[in-house]
Amino acid sequence: MPQVKGDRYQATIPDTLDIQQRAELVLNTMTNCTDPKNNYAPYDNMYVYRNPPILRATTMINGKYMETTALLRYLTGSTTNQHVDQAWRNAYLEVFSGYPWWGVDPGRILAWLGNNYRIENNPCWLDLCKQVIKRARQEVVYQDDYCYYPDTQGAMPTGWDATYGGWTLQGLTQLYRATQNTEALELAGKVARYLKDHAMIFDSDGHFLARHPSNNGLALHFHHNGNVLEGLSAYALAANDRELASFAKSSYEWARATGSPLVGFFPEYINDWPDDRPYVDCETCCTADMIQIAMTLSEAQQGDYWDDVDRYLRNQFIEMQLLDGKWIDQMVASLPPTPLEANEDADRVSERLVGSFASWATANDWYIEEQPGTTFCCIGNGGRALYYVWEKMIRFTNDTLTIHLLLNRASTWADVNSYVPYEGRVDIKMKVTCDLEIRIPEWVKPNEVVGLVNNEPRRLVFQGRYALIGSVESGNVVTITFPIFERTVETMIGNIPYTLIIKGNDVVSVDPPGKWYPFYQRAKYRENQVRWVNRERFVPTI
Ligand SMILES: [Zn+2]
Fold it and tell me: Which of 170, 287, 322, 499 is 20 to 30 A away from residue 240, measured at CA?
């Protein structure tokens, strides 16, 4: 596997949310929660309510990990544990010709194949993409203007069984984006029409319909439906299909109302649950879906949803990433010891889980008592969403640099240093000469924004929420300042009343607080003066 090329340098940056640092932690957990005795196959399940905590079950080819690892290595330039993803790559390439292309892992692998071509620029990936698309075109059943992958009886899957096509649609669309393979786009279009109009996953208003059977009757799982919606919105953007984008917008706005858009909490199940659990939990995958859909709809000009992305990302989503596992060892110390089964691994589990995303979180805690802990699914999808926020938060096109989110970010075009939420301030160190526009978040009135270029005042013009800075030169430092303040909000999240203190878009306090791994330990953000930290920045060569 070639190393990602790019620039690496030390920088002093504000001690605020830093996606590059979070991405390194995801790589840590994905490559460490693997079985070294079994060729580094990833573990599927992480049980923390056991003494000792354990990792269990392995699948050698895990598409979610393969796609996300490659993306996050591009983002970070990290080579840590690269022998692990090399082993996954070898295992997949050995079975390539007979490996399926439809479903969860195969869908993610379609994207991985395309991304490998984009990142490594090696034509062998293009050849593999062509082979897999050729096979896919032969295996689908065509009907009018749509197509589907038949079940074992040759019939068209609908409802829950059809939702697995969401992963395939995402994979085909991303493969097209990365390689410009028009056959992949054409196939994606037919799959999109199947999923929207014939698969019984959505009603005509975009409400989710696909339920799975359970002891309590049929259960409406957010992520299986939300993941299809993510695929539809990504295809609509890639194909510039405005009708489909408009449908995805209606569906997104309906899904948004099932949770708390203030913090990005979306329930694992909507209304119909598979059991009588005494809580409403949020699965990382639900929030990850909503982040991706909101960004895609904004790009497709269906609305400006960047504040949704900012609120989801800064709050529920990023709090669902585990930064410290010591509480797990403390929690299980009082449980009776359980002997290990042959397929269980108890080595340093709490350490290996650092960087993982929660599968069952509340609005104030990573963990719900006696629940397993987490699974590979949320780690893979959480890491993938993190990558796409990093990719899409800044855009350079037609000699204009647009910054959508006020987060720390090093790039080829400029380095962004965000003081938010300590202070309402962002510094942008320009590396190219171009026009610059910066999106100002929703709590700020345009006339409150002050812009400076090399400390000289710059008159700002607003277009929607974007402050148009105008022409800036390489080497300029652009500073934007605006008011930021705290407000108190009483709100219901997952059937529980909470009192939140919110500064800008960041929750800085939640009451009642969590118990095991409590969210929002953010007293430092309530200081009104930024703290600084030294970090290594990596900027991949485009
Ligand atoms: Zn999940």
Answer: 287
| Alpha carbons 357 and 379: distance in angstroms, whole number | 5
* Strand 496-503 with 506-511, pairing: antiparallel
Query: What is the Å distance from ligand 1's center to 360 Cα?
Result: 9
Select from 511, 540, 504 the least CA-distant residue to 418: 504
Q: How far is the CA of 6 from the centre of ligand 1 (A)?
A: 32
Instruction: Fill in the DSSP letter of residue 324.
Output: -
Over the Cα atoms of the chain, what is R_g?
A: 23
503 three-state secondary structure: strand
Helix (H, G, I), strand (E, B) or coil at 310: helix
Ligand 1 centre from 410 Cα, in Å? 29
**C-alpha distances in angstroms, 508 versus 89, 405, 493?**
42, 19, 16
% of the chain residues with pLDDT over 70: 100
Q: Is the dihedral of CA 203, 206, 207, 213 positive or negative?
A: positive
- pTM score: 0.98
In the reported structure, the alpha carbon of residue 357 is separated from the centroid of ligand 1 by a whole-number distance in angstroms of 9
| CA-based end-to-end distance of the chain | 18
pLDDT tens digits, one per residue of 361-400: 999 999 998 888 899 999 999 999 999 999 999 999 999 9
pLDDT digits (tens, 9 = 90+) for 181-197: 999 999 999 999 999 99
Ligand 1 centroid – CA 290 distance (Å): 13
The DSSP 8-state label assigned to residue 405 in this structure reads S
In the three-class reduction of DSSP (H, G, I as helix; E, B as strand; rest coil), residue 186 is classed as helix
* pLDDT digits 0-9 by tens, 488-522: 999 999 999 999 999 999 999 999 999 999 999 99
Instruction: Match 């991303």 to its residue by tokens.
Output: 174
Q: How many Å apart are CA 210 and CA 251, to the nearest integer? A: 14
Q: Are 245 and 302 in contact (CB under 8 A)?
A: yes
3-class secondary structure per residue, 20-55: HHHHHHHHHHHHHCEEHHHCCEEEEEEECCCCCCEE
Taking the centre of ligand 1 as the mean of its atom positions, its distance from the CA of residue 394, in whole angstroms, is: 27
Q: How far apart are CA 181 and CA 209, in angstroms?
A: 32
Backbone angles phi, psi at 74, to 5 degrees: -65, -45
CA atoms within 13 A on the CB side of 485: 6
- 137 Cα: distance to centroid of ligand 1 (angstroms): 29
Ligand 1 centroid, distance to 44 Cα (angstroms):
11
The class that CATH gives domain 395-481 is mainly beta
